[in-house]
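Marked as duplicate of an earlier ticket. Keeping the data here for the record.
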Amino acid sequence: MAERLHQRNWPKSPPNCYYRNHSMVITTARLLQFLRNPGSRAIPVRLLIVDDHEIVRLGVRILLSDTDQWDICGEARNGAEAVEQVAELAPDVVILDLTMPVMSGFDTAKRIRRVAPLTRIVFFSIHETPTTARLAGADGFVSKSSAAAELASTIRKVLATGETQRPVTLQIPD
């Protein structure tokens, strides 16, 4: 059996690679950075951006590109694509618009909870509905008008809350 494992054509990892998950690679430099600053994350937080407007997805990508603590693992234009991407990419956090074609953000969040219950969801919308978002199962809410100041800190807060502090999800009928 060991011989068969060695005969497979496994993808080549870069030199000094200690960890490989999907497209993410931890190199010696990244490992040393973590060892020097134990409070930092050695593995970047995987984010999925879901919005029907390309300019918004691009803006979020740019907003979060100033640090290597985030890894934008994918983007989706609507809820159906988002559910597929969550199943395929296993993001840590989904940044989810509320108003989209095909499937609303609320319905998308409900389906994401079924597919990946540990994935955190941050609603990202022009609508000021943080209470409704929490009742629908989101872990956080950021208004698009305050994204520059609040998006990164909200993602950090959502990741810092334990499983016992997750919101109670309102049961929305299908």
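See parent ticket for discussion. The chain has two domains: 12-43, 44-163.
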